[in-house]
Design goal:
The chain is an alpha+beta fold. 59% of the residues lie in helices and 7% in strands. It is built from 21 helices and 11 strands. It has helices spanning 38-50, 54-57, 66-76, 78-88, 96-102, 114-125, 129-132, 169-190, 199-213, 216-229, 261-265, 272-290, 323-338, 341-352, 360-376, 384-397, 404-423, 429-444, 447-480, 490-522, 528-560, and strands spanning 135-136, 142-143, 147-153, 159-165, 236-237, 250-254, 259-260, 292-294, 302-304, 310-312, 318-320. The longest helix has 34 residues, at 447-480. It is globular. It starts with 37 loop residues before the first helix and ends with a helix.
Length: 561
Protein backbone atom coordinates (compact mmCIF):
# COMPACT_ATOMS: atom_id res chain seq x y z
CA UNK A 1 0.00 0.00 0.00
CA UNK A 2 1.38 3.35 -1.00
CA UNK A 3 2.19 6.02 1.54
CA UNK A 4 0.52 9.28 0.51
CA UNK A 5 -0.22 12.68 1.94
CA UNK A 6 -3.08 12.89 4.49
CA UNK A 7 -6.40 12.39 2.79
CA UNK A 8 -9.43 14.62 3.00
CA UNK A 9 -12.91 13.14 3.06
CA UNK A 10 -14.25 12.46 -0.41
CA UNK A 11 -17.58 11.27 -1.77
CA UNK A 12 -18.01 7.57 -1.05
CA UNK A 13 -17.95 5.41 -4.14
CA UNK A 14 -20.65 2.88 -4.89
CA UNK A 15 -19.74 -0.53 -3.54
CA UNK A 16 -18.27 0.75 -0.27
CA UNK A 17 -20.01 0.52 3.07
CA UNK A 18 -19.09 3.22 5.53
CA UNK A 19 -21.15 1.82 8.40
CA UNK A 20 -19.26 0.66 11.47
CA UNK A 21 -18.64 -3.08 11.55
CA UNK A 22 -20.86 -5.07 13.87
CA UNK A 23 -19.34 -6.39 17.08
CA UNK A 24 -17.86 -9.83 16.91
CA UNK A 25 -15.61 -9.47 13.89
CA UNK A 26 -15.84 -8.81 10.22
CA UNK A 27 -19.27 -9.58 8.82
CA UNK A 28 -19.55 -13.01 7.30
CA UNK A 29 -21.19 -12.86 3.93
CA UNK A 30 -24.26 -15.00 3.35
CA UNK A 31 -24.21 -17.53 0.55
CA UNK A 32 -24.04 -15.41 -2.58
CA UNK A 33 -26.47 -16.27 -5.35
CA UNK A 34 -27.57 -14.59 -8.54
CA UNK A 35 -30.96 -13.80 -6.94
CA UNK A 36 -29.40 -12.00 -3.99
CA UNK A 37 -27.23 -10.05 -6.41
CA UNK A 38 -30.27 -8.64 -8.27
CA UNK A 39 -30.28 -5.25 -6.46
CA UNK A 40 -26.57 -4.85 -7.19
CA UNK A 41 -27.14 -5.90 -10.80
CA UNK A 42 -29.77 -3.16 -11.15
CA UNK A 43 -27.26 -0.64 -9.76
CA UNK A 44 -24.57 -1.90 -12.15
CA UNK A 45 -26.90 -1.53 -15.13
CA UNK A 46 -27.70 2.02 -14.03
CA UNK A 47 -24.00 2.89 -13.93
CA UNK A 48 -23.51 1.20 -17.32
CA UNK A 49 -26.31 3.31 -18.78
CA UNK A 50 -24.78 6.55 -17.48
CA UNK A 51 -21.43 5.63 -19.03
CA UNK A 52 -22.96 4.52 -22.37
CA UNK A 53 -22.07 0.86 -21.90
CA UNK A 54 -25.59 -0.54 -22.29
CA UNK A 55 -25.56 -0.67 -26.11
CA UNK A 56 -22.58 -3.02 -25.90
CA UNK A 57 -24.27 -5.14 -23.23
CA UNK A 58 -27.39 -5.32 -25.42
CA UNK A 59 -25.39 -6.52 -28.39
CA UNK A 60 -25.54 -3.42 -30.60
CA UNK A 61 -21.93 -3.92 -31.65
CA UNK A 62 -20.87 -0.48 -30.44
CA UNK A 63 -17.64 -0.59 -28.47
CA UNK A 64 -17.47 1.74 -25.49
CA UNK A 65 -14.57 4.12 -25.29
CA UNK A 66 -11.87 2.89 -22.88
CA UNK A 67 -12.41 5.98 -20.73
CA UNK A 68 -16.11 5.13 -20.34
CA UNK A 69 -15.25 1.66 -19.08
CA UNK A 70 -12.69 3.01 -16.61
CA UNK A 71 -15.10 5.61 -15.23
CA UNK A 72 -17.79 2.96 -14.77
CA UNK A 73 -15.42 0.75 -12.79
CA UNK A 74 -14.42 3.70 -10.61
CA UNK A 75 -18.05 4.51 -9.82
CA UNK A 76 -18.91 0.88 -9.02
CA UNK A 77 -16.46 0.77 -6.14
CA UNK A 78 -13.73 -1.32 -4.61
CA UNK A 79 -14.45 -4.77 -6.12
CA UNK A 80 -14.76 -3.35 -9.62
CA UNK A 81 -11.68 -1.19 -9.10
CA UNK A 82 -9.75 -4.34 -8.24
CA UNK A 83 -11.32 -6.25 -11.12
CA UNK A 84 -10.38 -3.47 -13.53
CA UNK A 85 -6.80 -3.66 -12.29
CA UNK A 86 -6.82 -7.41 -12.90
CA UNK A 87 -8.17 -6.93 -16.43
CA UNK A 88 -5.51 -4.28 -17.06
CA UNK A 89 -2.80 -6.90 -16.73
CA UNK A 90 -4.66 -9.40 -18.92
CA UNK A 91 -3.63 -8.02 -22.29
CA UNK A 92 -4.26 -11.49 -23.64
CA UNK A 93 -7.98 -10.83 -23.08
CA UNK A 94 -8.41 -7.09 -23.74
CA UNK A 95 -7.38 -4.80 -26.61
CA UNK A 96 -4.31 -2.74 -25.74
CA UNK A 97 -6.24 0.55 -25.50
CA UNK A 98 -8.57 -0.79 -22.82
CA UNK A 99 -5.75 -2.39 -20.84
CA UNK A 100 -3.77 0.87 -20.87
CA UNK A 101 -6.80 2.88 -19.73
CA UNK A 102 -7.61 0.46 -16.91
CA UNK A 103 -4.00 0.68 -15.73
CA UNK A 104 -4.79 4.23 -14.61
CA UNK A 105 -7.46 3.06 -12.17
CA UNK A 106 -6.54 4.56 -8.82
CA UNK A 107 -6.21 2.37 -5.76
CA UNK A 108 -7.60 4.92 -3.34
CA UNK A 109 -11.02 5.34 -1.75
CA UNK A 110 -12.29 8.02 0.62
CA UNK A 111 -10.68 7.66 4.02
CA UNK A 112 -12.71 5.97 6.75
CA UNK A 113 -13.69 8.20 9.64
CA UNK A 114 -11.74 7.80 12.87
CA UNK A 115 -14.85 6.45 14.63
CA UNK A 116 -14.98 3.45 12.26
CA UNK A 117 -11.23 2.92 12.63
CA UNK A 118 -11.45 3.09 16.43
CA UNK A 119 -14.42 0.69 16.52
CA UNK A 120 -12.62 -1.86 14.36
CA UNK A 121 -9.38 -1.71 16.37
CA UNK A 122 -11.06 -1.92 19.76
CA UNK A 123 -13.36 -4.73 18.63
CA UNK A 124 -10.60 -6.92 17.19
CA UNK A 125 -7.85 -6.17 19.73
CA UNK A 126 -10.27 -6.35 22.64
CA UNK A 127 -9.03 -3.20 24.36
CA UNK A 128 -9.50 0.58 24.18
CA UNK A 129 -7.32 2.35 21.62
CA UNK A 130 -5.36 4.13 24.35
CA UNK A 131 -4.44 0.82 25.99
CA UNK A 132 -3.06 -0.62 22.75
CA UNK A 133 -1.17 2.48 21.59
CA UNK A 134 0.55 5.33 23.40
CA UNK A 135 -0.37 7.62 20.51
CA UNK A 136 -2.41 7.15 17.35
CA UNK A 137 -2.41 9.54 14.37
CA UNK A 138 -6.03 10.01 13.30
CA UNK A 139 -5.02 11.18 9.82
CA UNK A 140 -4.27 8.12 7.65
CA UNK A 141 -1.02 7.79 5.79
CA UNK A 142 -2.90 6.02 2.98
CA UNK A 143 -6.43 4.87 2.19
CA UNK A 144 -6.68 2.15 -0.46
CA UNK A 145 -9.43 -0.19 -1.57
CA UNK A 146 -8.97 -2.83 1.13
CA UNK A 147 -7.59 -0.92 4.11
CA UNK A 148 -6.01 2.28 5.32
CA UNK A 149 -2.83 2.83 7.32
CA UNK A 150 -2.27 4.97 10.41
CA UNK A 151 0.97 5.78 12.17
CA UNK A 152 1.10 5.03 15.90
CA UNK A 153 3.48 4.68 18.83
CA UNK A 154 3.58 1.73 21.21
CA UNK A 155 3.92 2.13 24.96
CA UNK A 156 7.54 0.92 24.70
CA UNK A 157 8.32 3.76 22.28
CA UNK A 158 8.40 1.77 19.03
CA UNK A 159 6.94 3.42 15.93
CA UNK A 160 4.41 1.25 14.08
CA UNK A 161 2.08 1.33 11.09
CA UNK A 162 -1.45 0.10 11.80
CA UNK A 163 -3.34 -1.32 8.84
CA UNK A 164 -7.13 -1.33 9.34
CA UNK A 165 -9.58 -2.97 6.95
CA UNK A 166 -12.73 -1.36 5.69
CA UNK A 167 -15.89 -2.76 7.31
CA UNK A 168 -18.10 -5.47 5.80
CA UNK A 169 -15.56 -6.39 3.11
CA UNK A 170 -16.59 -10.04 2.94
CA UNK A 171 -20.24 -9.17 2.37
CA UNK A 172 -19.38 -6.52 -0.26
CA UNK A 173 -17.03 -8.88 -2.08
CA UNK A 174 -19.51 -11.78 -2.02
CA UNK A 175 -22.27 -9.56 -3.40
CA UNK A 176 -20.17 -8.11 -6.21
CA UNK A 177 -18.58 -11.43 -7.16
CA UNK A 178 -22.09 -12.89 -7.44
CA UNK A 179 -23.05 -9.97 -9.69
CA UNK A 180 -19.92 -10.38 -11.83
CA UNK A 181 -20.54 -14.12 -12.15
CA UNK A 182 -24.11 -13.50 -13.27
CA UNK A 183 -23.03 -10.85 -15.79
CA UNK A 184 -20.35 -13.12 -17.25
CA UNK A 185 -22.79 -16.04 -17.55
CA UNK A 186 -25.33 -13.77 -19.24
CA UNK A 187 -22.69 -12.38 -21.58
CA UNK A 188 -21.55 -15.86 -22.64
CA UNK A 189 -25.15 -16.84 -23.32
CA UNK A 190 -25.81 -13.77 -25.46
CA UNK A 191 -22.41 -13.78 -27.16
CA UNK A 192 -20.99 -17.33 -27.47
CA UNK A 193 -17.72 -15.89 -28.81
CA UNK A 194 -17.03 -14.61 -25.27
CA UNK A 195 -16.48 -18.19 -24.12
CA UNK A 196 -13.03 -18.15 -25.71
CA UNK A 197 -12.00 -15.52 -23.13
CA UNK A 198 -12.62 -17.97 -20.28
CA UNK A 199 -14.00 -15.14 -18.14
CA UNK A 200 -15.62 -17.44 -15.52
CA UNK A 201 -12.13 -18.70 -14.67
CA UNK A 202 -10.84 -15.10 -14.49
CA UNK A 203 -13.64 -14.14 -12.10
CA UNK A 204 -13.06 -17.26 -9.98
CA UNK A 205 -9.32 -16.56 -9.69
CA UNK A 206 -10.06 -12.92 -8.95
CA UNK A 207 -12.42 -13.96 -6.15
CA UNK A 208 -9.73 -16.20 -4.62
CA UNK A 209 -7.19 -13.40 -4.91
CA UNK A 210 -9.45 -10.94 -3.10
CA UNK A 211 -10.15 -13.48 -0.36
CA UNK A 212 -6.41 -13.89 0.18
CA UNK A 213 -5.83 -10.14 0.16
CA UNK A 214 -8.34 -9.44 2.94
CA UNK A 215 -6.96 -12.27 5.08
CA UNK A 216 -4.56 -10.39 7.35
CA UNK A 217 -3.57 -13.65 9.03
CA UNK A 218 -2.29 -14.91 5.69
CA UNK A 219 -0.46 -11.63 5.07
CA UNK A 220 1.24 -11.88 8.47
CA UNK A 221 2.34 -15.43 7.60
CA UNK A 222 3.65 -14.21 4.23
CA UNK A 223 5.69 -11.50 5.95
CA UNK A 224 7.23 -14.08 8.28
CA UNK A 225 7.99 -16.34 5.30
CA UNK A 226 9.67 -13.57 3.31
CA UNK A 227 11.65 -12.35 6.31
CA UNK A 228 13.01 -15.85 6.90
CA UNK A 229 13.65 -16.65 3.24
CA UNK A 230 15.44 -13.34 2.55
CA UNK A 231 17.19 -12.92 5.91
CA UNK A 232 20.62 -13.04 4.23
CA UNK A 233 19.74 -10.38 1.65
CA UNK A 234 21.85 -7.54 3.05
CA UNK A 235 20.26 -4.77 0.94
CA UNK A 236 16.72 -5.44 2.19
CA UNK A 237 14.70 -4.85 5.36
CA UNK A 238 11.12 -6.11 5.76
CA UNK A 239 9.12 -4.66 8.68
CA UNK A 240 8.08 -7.33 11.17
CA UNK A 241 4.57 -7.96 12.44
CA UNK A 242 3.63 -7.02 16.03
CA UNK A 243 1.62 -10.18 16.84
CA UNK A 244 -0.05 -8.91 20.02
CA UNK A 245 -1.62 -6.05 18.06
CA UNK A 246 -2.52 -7.97 14.91
CA UNK A 247 -5.87 -9.71 14.87
CA UNK A 248 -8.90 -9.89 12.60
CA UNK A 249 -9.11 -6.73 10.52
CA UNK A 250 -6.06 -5.10 12.20
CA UNK A 251 -2.43 -5.67 11.20
CA UNK A 252 0.31 -3.81 13.10
CA UNK A 253 3.82 -3.63 11.65
CA UNK A 254 7.11 -1.98 12.43
CA UNK A 255 7.15 1.47 10.86
CA UNK A 256 9.38 1.90 7.82
CA UNK A 257 11.33 5.17 8.33
CA UNK A 258 12.34 5.38 4.69
CA UNK A 259 11.08 7.30 1.68
CA UNK A 260 9.22 6.01 -1.37
CA UNK A 261 11.79 5.00 -3.95
CA UNK A 262 10.33 7.24 -6.67
CA UNK A 263 10.45 10.25 -4.34
CA UNK A 264 13.97 9.34 -3.23
CA UNK A 265 15.24 8.96 -6.82
CA UNK A 266 14.90 12.65 -7.70
CA UNK A 267 17.49 14.08 -5.28
CA UNK A 268 19.60 10.87 -5.27
CA UNK A 269 19.88 9.66 -8.89
CA UNK A 270 23.36 8.23 -8.28
CA UNK A 271 21.89 5.59 -5.92
CA UNK A 272 19.39 4.17 -8.41
CA UNK A 273 21.68 1.67 -10.24
CA UNK A 274 22.46 -0.06 -6.94
CA UNK A 275 18.79 -0.02 -5.92
CA UNK A 276 17.67 -1.42 -9.27
CA UNK A 277 20.28 -4.18 -9.18
CA UNK A 278 19.06 -5.05 -5.69
CA UNK A 279 15.44 -5.18 -6.86
CA UNK A 280 16.32 -7.48 -9.76
CA UNK A 281 18.33 -9.78 -7.48
CA UNK A 282 15.52 -9.73 -4.95
CA UNK A 283 12.89 -10.70 -7.52
CA UNK A 284 14.88 -13.48 -9.14
CA UNK A 285 16.34 -14.86 -5.91
CA UNK A 286 12.95 -15.06 -4.22
CA UNK A 287 11.44 -16.76 -7.28
CA UNK A 288 14.11 -19.32 -8.11
CA UNK A 289 15.61 -20.04 -4.70
CA UNK A 290 12.57 -19.73 -2.47
CA UNK A 291 9.62 -20.20 -4.84
CA UNK A 292 7.85 -17.04 -3.62
CA UNK A 293 7.52 -13.55 -5.04
CA UNK A 294 6.01 -10.16 -4.26
CA UNK A 295 3.33 -9.65 -6.91
CA UNK A 296 2.96 -5.87 -6.53
CA UNK A 297 6.44 -4.26 -6.48
CA UNK A 298 5.31 -0.74 -7.42
CA UNK A 299 7.04 2.40 -6.06
CA UNK A 300 4.54 2.80 -3.23
CA UNK A 301 5.60 -0.58 -1.83
CA UNK A 302 9.37 -0.03 -2.11
CA UNK A 303 11.05 2.42 0.28
CA UNK A 304 14.68 3.50 0.65
CA UNK A 305 15.89 3.57 4.25
CA UNK A 306 18.29 6.24 5.60
CA UNK A 307 21.16 3.71 5.44
CA UNK A 308 20.50 2.99 1.74
CA UNK A 309 18.82 -0.39 2.16
CA UNK A 310 15.47 -1.12 0.54
CA UNK A 311 12.32 -1.74 2.53
CA UNK A 312 9.60 -3.89 0.95
CA UNK A 313 6.00 -3.35 2.09
CA UNK A 314 2.49 -4.78 1.62
CA UNK A 315 2.46 -8.58 1.34
CA UNK A 316 -1.25 -8.96 0.69
CA UNK A 317 -0.56 -9.97 -2.90
CA UNK A 318 2.13 -12.63 -3.19
CA UNK A 319 2.65 -15.70 -5.36
CA UNK A 320 4.21 -19.12 -4.98
CA UNK A 321 5.84 -21.39 -7.57
CA UNK A 322 6.49 -25.07 -7.03
CA UNK A 323 9.73 -26.73 -8.16
CA UNK A 324 8.29 -27.80 -11.51
CA UNK A 325 7.12 -24.31 -12.38
CA UNK A 326 10.45 -22.83 -11.33
CA UNK A 327 12.35 -25.25 -13.57
CA UNK A 328 10.04 -24.45 -16.48
CA UNK A 329 10.29 -20.71 -15.85
CA UNK A 330 14.08 -20.86 -15.87
CA UNK A 331 14.00 -22.64 -19.24
CA UNK A 332 11.40 -20.17 -20.52
CA UNK A 333 13.42 -17.08 -19.61
CA UNK A 334 16.57 -18.56 -21.15
CA UNK A 335 14.63 -19.35 -24.34
CA UNK A 336 13.17 -15.82 -24.49
CA UNK A 337 16.60 -14.22 -24.13
CA UNK A 338 18.01 -16.55 -26.83
CA UNK A 339 14.99 -16.11 -29.12
CA UNK A 340 14.28 -19.88 -29.25
CA UNK A 341 10.54 -20.08 -29.94
CA UNK A 342 10.22 -23.87 -29.75
CA UNK A 343 12.04 -24.10 -26.43
CA UNK A 344 9.99 -21.17 -25.08
CA UNK A 345 6.72 -22.88 -26.03
CA UNK A 346 7.70 -26.21 -24.52
CA UNK A 347 8.63 -24.55 -21.24
CA UNK A 348 5.46 -22.43 -21.32
CA UNK A 349 3.20 -25.43 -21.92
CA UNK A 350 4.83 -27.24 -19.02
CA UNK A 351 3.81 -24.33 -16.79
CA UNK A 352 0.32 -24.03 -18.25
CA UNK A 353 -0.43 -27.78 -18.25
CA UNK A 354 -2.07 -27.45 -21.66
CA UNK A 355 -4.47 -30.07 -23.05
CA UNK A 356 -5.01 -31.55 -26.49
CA UNK A 357 -7.14 -28.61 -27.65
CA UNK A 358 -4.10 -26.33 -27.90
CA UNK A 359 -3.27 -25.15 -31.41
CA UNK A 360 0.48 -25.77 -31.26
CA UNK A 361 1.13 -24.66 -34.83
CA UNK A 362 -0.62 -21.34 -34.22
CA UNK A 363 1.14 -20.92 -30.90
CA UNK A 364 4.53 -21.52 -32.53
CA UNK A 365 3.79 -18.98 -35.28
CA UNK A 366 2.66 -16.34 -32.78
CA UNK A 367 5.64 -16.98 -30.51
CA UNK A 368 8.10 -16.75 -33.39
CA UNK A 369 6.60 -13.38 -34.31
CA UNK A 370 6.92 -12.14 -30.72
CA UNK A 371 10.51 -13.32 -30.36
CA UNK A 372 11.39 -11.86 -33.77
CA UNK A 373 10.43 -8.44 -32.42
CA UNK A 374 12.61 -9.08 -29.36
CA UNK A 375 15.60 -10.11 -31.49
CA UNK A 376 15.22 -6.95 -33.58
CA UNK A 377 15.52 -4.84 -30.42
CA UNK A 378 18.61 -3.79 -28.60
CA UNK A 379 19.07 -6.41 -25.86
CA UNK A 380 19.25 -3.66 -23.26
CA UNK A 381 15.71 -2.61 -24.29
CA UNK A 382 14.18 -6.09 -24.03
CA UNK A 383 11.29 -6.34 -21.58
CA UNK A 384 10.84 -9.67 -19.82
CA UNK A 385 7.40 -8.58 -18.68
CA UNK A 386 6.31 -7.71 -22.23
CA UNK A 387 7.75 -11.00 -23.52
CA UNK A 388 5.79 -12.99 -20.94
CA UNK A 389 2.73 -10.87 -21.69
CA UNK A 390 3.08 -11.65 -25.42
CA UNK A 391 3.38 -15.32 -24.60
CA UNK A 392 0.18 -15.20 -22.51
CA UNK A 393 -1.64 -13.48 -25.36
CA UNK A 394 -0.39 -16.05 -27.87
CA UNK A 395 -1.45 -18.83 -25.51
CA UNK A 396 -4.97 -17.44 -25.02
CA UNK A 397 -5.45 -17.11 -28.78
CA UNK A 398 -4.47 -20.73 -29.25
CA UNK A 399 -6.38 -22.52 -26.51
CA UNK A 400 -4.00 -22.29 -23.52
CA UNK A 401 -5.48 -21.44 -20.11
CA UNK A 402 -2.87 -19.33 -18.38
CA UNK A 403 -2.37 -20.39 -14.75
CA UNK A 404 -2.98 -17.78 -12.06
CA UNK A 405 0.66 -17.96 -10.89
CA UNK A 406 1.92 -17.14 -14.38
CA UNK A 407 -0.45 -14.16 -14.64
CA UNK A 408 0.72 -12.85 -11.26
CA UNK A 409 4.36 -13.35 -12.18
CA UNK A 410 3.96 -11.55 -15.50
CA UNK A 411 2.26 -8.67 -13.70
CA UNK A 412 5.13 -8.49 -11.20
CA UNK A 413 7.73 -8.25 -13.99
CA UNK A 414 5.70 -5.62 -15.86
CA UNK A 415 5.37 -3.49 -12.69
CA UNK A 416 9.06 -3.89 -11.83
CA UNK A 417 10.23 -2.92 -15.32
CA UNK A 418 7.90 0.08 -15.42
CA UNK A 419 9.39 1.26 -12.14
CA UNK A 420 12.93 0.73 -13.43
CA UNK A 421 12.11 2.80 -16.51
CA UNK A 422 10.74 5.55 -14.29
CA UNK A 423 13.64 5.59 -11.85
CA UNK A 424 16.60 5.22 -14.22
CA UNK A 425 15.65 5.25 -17.92
CA UNK A 426 19.26 4.79 -19.07
CA UNK A 427 20.08 1.88 -16.76
CA UNK A 428 20.78 -1.47 -18.47
CA UNK A 429 18.18 -3.49 -16.63
CA UNK A 430 18.83 -6.57 -18.77
CA UNK A 431 22.48 -6.68 -17.71
CA UNK A 432 21.37 -6.98 -14.10
CA UNK A 433 18.95 -9.66 -15.16
CA UNK A 434 21.57 -11.64 -17.11
CA UNK A 435 24.08 -11.43 -14.25
CA UNK A 436 21.58 -12.76 -11.74
CA UNK A 437 20.36 -15.54 -14.05
CA UNK A 438 24.00 -16.61 -14.54
CA UNK A 439 24.55 -16.67 -10.77
CA UNK A 440 21.38 -18.69 -10.18
CA UNK A 441 22.27 -21.13 -12.96
CA UNK A 442 25.71 -21.72 -11.43
CA UNK A 443 24.10 -22.20 -8.03
CA UNK A 444 21.55 -24.58 -9.52
CA UNK A 445 24.31 -26.88 -10.79
CA UNK A 446 26.57 -26.56 -7.74
CA UNK A 447 27.92 -29.97 -6.57
CA UNK A 448 26.12 -29.85 -3.23
CA UNK A 449 22.76 -29.09 -4.87
CA UNK A 450 23.23 -31.87 -7.43
CA UNK A 451 24.21 -34.27 -4.63
CA UNK A 452 21.06 -33.44 -2.67
CA UNK A 453 18.79 -33.80 -5.68
CA UNK A 454 20.48 -37.05 -6.69
CA UNK A 455 19.84 -38.50 -3.24
CA UNK A 456 16.20 -37.49 -3.44
CA UNK A 457 15.94 -38.96 -6.93
CA UNK A 458 17.55 -42.23 -5.80
CA UNK A 459 15.06 -42.60 -2.96
CA UNK A 460 12.16 -41.94 -5.30
CA UNK A 461 13.47 -44.37 -7.92
CA UNK A 462 13.78 -47.04 -5.22
CA UNK A 463 10.11 -46.48 -4.39
CA UNK A 464 9.22 -46.53 -8.09
CA UNK A 465 10.88 -49.89 -8.73
CA UNK A 466 9.37 -51.31 -5.56
CA UNK A 467 5.81 -50.24 -6.48
CA UNK A 468 5.70 -51.04 -10.19
CA UNK A 469 5.72 -54.90 -10.01
CA UNK A 470 3.06 -54.96 -7.32
CA UNK A 471 0.80 -52.60 -9.26
CA UNK A 472 1.22 -54.67 -12.41
CA UNK A 473 0.59 -57.95 -10.59
CA UNK A 474 -2.63 -56.66 -9.02
CA UNK A 475 -4.02 -55.47 -12.34
CA UNK A 476 -3.16 -58.78 -14.07
CA UNK A 477 -4.80 -60.81 -11.28
CA UNK A 478 -7.98 -58.75 -11.64
CA UNK A 479 -8.00 -59.20 -15.41
CA UNK A 480 -7.48 -62.99 -15.10
CA UNK A 481 -10.32 -63.24 -12.59
CA UNK A 482 -12.66 -61.33 -14.88
CA UNK A 483 -13.29 -58.87 -12.09
CA UNK A 484 -12.97 -55.69 -14.13
CA UNK A 485 -16.58 -54.61 -13.79
CA UNK A 486 -16.55 -54.95 -10.00
CA UNK A 487 -13.23 -53.13 -9.42
CA UNK A 488 -14.02 -49.60 -8.19
CA UNK A 489 -10.35 -48.61 -8.04
CA UNK A 490 -9.36 -49.99 -11.44
CA UNK A 491 -9.22 -46.63 -13.17
CA UNK A 492 -7.03 -45.12 -10.47
CA UNK A 493 -4.86 -48.24 -10.38
CA UNK A 494 -4.49 -48.20 -14.15
CA UNK A 495 -3.52 -44.54 -14.09
CA UNK A 496 -0.92 -45.25 -11.42
CA UNK A 497 0.46 -48.16 -13.46
CA UNK A 498 0.63 -45.95 -16.53
CA UNK A 499 2.52 -43.29 -14.57
CA UNK A 500 4.95 -45.85 -13.19
CA UNK A 501 5.64 -47.30 -16.64
CA UNK A 502 6.14 -43.81 -18.05
CA UNK A 503 8.55 -42.91 -15.26
CA UNK A 504 10.43 -46.17 -15.74
CA UNK A 505 10.76 -45.54 -19.48
CA UNK A 506 11.97 -42.00 -18.80
CA UNK A 507 14.51 -43.26 -16.28
CA UNK A 508 15.84 -45.82 -18.75
CA UNK A 509 16.09 -43.16 -21.48
CA UNK A 510 17.99 -40.75 -19.25
CA UNK A 511 20.28 -43.52 -18.03
CA UNK A 512 20.99 -44.45 -21.67
CA UNK A 513 22.04 -40.85 -22.34
CA UNK A 514 24.48 -40.96 -19.44
CA UNK A 515 25.91 -44.33 -20.51
CA UNK A 516 26.17 -43.28 -24.17
CA UNK A 517 27.85 -40.02 -23.23
CA UNK A 518 30.32 -41.84 -21.00
CA UNK A 519 31.22 -44.20 -23.85
CA UNK A 520 31.85 -41.27 -26.17
CA UNK A 521 34.14 -39.67 -23.58
CA UNK A 522 36.11 -42.91 -23.36
CA UNK A 523 36.83 -42.91 -27.10
CA UNK A 524 40.21 -41.51 -28.21
CA UNK A 525 38.67 -39.44 -31.03
CA UNK A 526 38.21 -36.28 -28.95
CA UNK A 527 36.86 -33.13 -30.60
CA UNK A 528 33.13 -32.99 -31.12
CA UNK A 529 32.74 -36.54 -29.83
CA UNK A 530 33.78 -35.39 -26.35
CA UNK A 531 31.57 -32.30 -26.60
CA UNK A 532 28.61 -34.49 -27.59
CA UNK A 533 29.43 -36.94 -24.81
CA UNK A 534 29.49 -34.22 -22.18
CA UNK A 535 26.20 -32.82 -23.50
CA UNK A 536 24.59 -36.28 -23.33
CA UNK A 537 25.75 -36.81 -19.76
CA UNK A 538 24.51 -33.39 -18.64
CA UNK A 539 21.20 -33.96 -20.42
CA UNK A 540 20.77 -37.38 -18.84
CA UNK A 541 21.65 -36.20 -15.33
CA UNK A 542 19.42 -33.12 -15.59
CA UNK A 543 16.58 -35.26 -16.94
CA UNK A 544 16.88 -37.73 -14.09
CA UNK A 545 17.01 -34.90 -11.56
CA UNK A 546 13.90 -33.23 -12.96
CA UNK A 547 12.02 -36.54 -13.16
CA UNK A 548 13.10 -37.51 -9.67
CA UNK A 549 12.17 -34.15 -8.17
CA UNK A 550 8.76 -34.28 -9.85
CA UNK A 551 8.10 -37.78 -8.54
CA UNK A 552 9.25 -36.79 -5.06
CA UNK A 553 6.92 -33.80 -4.98
CA UNK A 554 4.01 -35.96 -6.16
CA UNK A 555 4.75 -38.43 -3.38
CA UNK A 556 4.81 -35.59 -0.84
CA UNK A 557 1.47 -34.29 -2.13
CA UNK A 558 -0.08 -37.76 -1.92
CA UNK A 559 1.36 -38.13 1.56
CA UNK A 560 -0.41 -34.97 2.65
CA UNK A 561 -3.72 -36.36 1.47
Amino acid sequence: MATVAPLAERRPLAGTDRRAAKPGGMAVAPQATGLRAVPRLVQILGVAARHKLLPTLMGSGRRPRPQELREAFEELGLVFLKFGQVLAMRRDLLPAGYAEELESLHDELPAMGIDIVRTTIERDLGAPLAESFASFDETPLAAATIAQVHRATLHDGRQVAVKVQRPDLQAIIARDIAALTTLVALGERLFPSMRALDLPVVVKEFSRSLSREIDFGREASSIALFRTALADFSDLWIPDVVPALSKGAVLTLEFSPGERIDHYAGPHPETMPRAINALVRLMLQSIFEEGIFHADPHPGNVFVLPDGRLSLLDFGNTGELDERMRESLMLLLEAVVKGDARAAIEAYLEMAAAGDEVNRAGLLADMKAALYEIRRSNLADVSIGDALDSLMSAGSRNGVHNPAEFVLLTRAFVILEAMVGQLAPDHDYMQSFRDEIARLTALHFAPERIKTKTQQWARDMERLFADAPGDTRRVLHRIAAGDLGRLPGLEALGARLSRNVTRLASAISFAALVIGGSMLLLTPMGGWHHVLGEAMIVGGVVGMLVAGIGALRRRQVHGQH
